[in-house]
Amino acid sequence: MKPVIALVGRPNVGKSTIFNRLTRSRDALVADFAGLTRDRIYGTVKEPGFDFILIDTGGLTDQTDNMSDLMRKQAKLAIDEADLILFIVDGRAGLMPTDSDVAQQLRNDGKPVCLVINKTEGERREIISAEFYALGLGEPQVISATQGRGIDTLLAEIKERIPAVEKIESDEVADTFDENEIRLAVLGRPNVGKSTLINRLLGEERVVAFDEPGTTRDSIHIPFEKDGVNYTLIDTAGVRRRSKVSEKLEKFSVLKTLQALEDANVVMLVLDAHEGIVEQDLHLAGLIIESGRAVVIAVNKWDGLEKSEREWVTTNIERRLPFLNFAKTHFISALHGSGVGLLFKSVRQAFQSAMTKVPTSRLTRVLEDAIADHPPPLVRGRRIKFRYAHLGGKNPPRIIIHGNQTESTPNSYKRYLENTFREALKLQGTPVMIEFKTSD
Ligand code: GDP
Ligand code: GDP
């Protein structure tokens, strides 16, 4: 499970600037999808050797709260959700009474806190930090978020202090999955029918209640077998959690979703045919795309719809979720069971595609054929040259293409290559990432 780190601090101290700096350089996958709702409050930070989820609690609290309510809510959220709190203060403004109040609240709780003084450019660190020792939070990190100063030291400190997790290179993370087990997360906004579907998927014979202890960000992991394949179902709806009535009432949790995505290979995105695509579905789709996971779409509550209604839903999905067009879509009724059995085949196919292994020789041949059919365009009178392609990772497959001037490859050509590889390698249900490397 990934550690969660929360940013807490008064408005304007630079929380969102720090958030953007730490979560920057994210997936190329998200780059050019218009209409995709992205989350600016929760993000994943991937550093060599350690990853974590970052929350900007400032973005979660209500604008109309007065300052002390605002700060109390932020601190409470951070204490509830995070493993480590980054408490941000403003080096220019100096120590403020609210800072002292929040510091006390954080100290009382005993959660690990790292004090960060921002906006310190052009000042001596000893002079700036002197007054903040009074907060009783120990040695501060002195940074300038806008200039990027002190960020590496801050990251080193975070790495030091977050709970021990397997320290593996981010690049290798995708390769640590067990190839003999499909980790399937069932995701969807409240009321789309996740619980009903999960009960169907698991079948009647396995009605076991799971009593795993956990916090609000934990999902239940349920191992099961189907047609000789081992699965772990990641249940964000908490269906099988015993005596947790409140669990069902909980609203959509981004943090839980992010954790589930981290744990899964394949996502089953459940939609409600009676309602079509609403804002929250788009938000969820954005998180899924960003994760690079394989996807199967289950359009639920297909029962009792008129032909015209069915047509409307189908068009609605195509139009609003074009960036998920690599995923196989099933129309099902979890309530009656129709279409549910067919989901497994698509899940297996998506998993196999996500985990695909292709030798460099084969990828290079596909690349050569693609170039022969449609040569890359000229850039400033010179032709972009591609030499060879190799597989750089899985879940999602990353195809690394080496050549000259490759950074000038237009997006349209990149998409052409992506589609060609997808077709040639029969990849279904997974995003495919194309990356270029220029070697001189
Ligand atoms: P938040 O309300 O805590 O999220 O603060 P923001 O990130 O929105 O920053 C508030 C203002 O402070 C913005 O105008 C930022 O450009 C500015 N700011 C953020 N970090 C720094 C910094 O390191 N130095 C300076 N001088 N300004 C900064
Ligand atoms: P969750 O919040 O996503 O776990 O949704 P539930 O599984 O609790 O279902 C929400 C409501 O939708 C319940 O009243 C279900 O009976 C109903 N429901 C679930 N699946 C179907 C279906 O396939 N067709 C119809 N008509 N209703 C369904």
Automatic annotation (TrEMBL):
Positions binding GTP 2 in this chain are 188-195, 235-239, 300-303
> InterPro entries attached here?
G_ENGA, GTP-bd, GTPase_Der, KH_dom-like, KH_dom-like_a/b, P-loop_NTPase, Small_GTP-bd
Q: Which residues form the EngA-type G domain?
A: 3-166, 182-355
* GO BP term, pick one: ribosome biogenesis
The protein's UniProt keywords, in alphabetical order, are: GTP-binding, Nucleotide-binding, Repeat, Ribosome biogenesis
Chain's role:
GTPase that plays an essential role in the late steps of ribosome biogenesis.
The subunit field of the Swiss-Prot or TrEMBL record says: Associates with the 50S ribosomal subunit.
State the similarity comment.
Belongs to the TRAFAC class TrmE-Era-EngA-EngB-Septin-like GTPase superfamily. EngA (Der) GTPase family.
* Protein name listed in UniProt: GTPase Der
Species of the source: Methylophaga sulfidovorans
Gene name, Swiss-Prot/TrEMBL = der
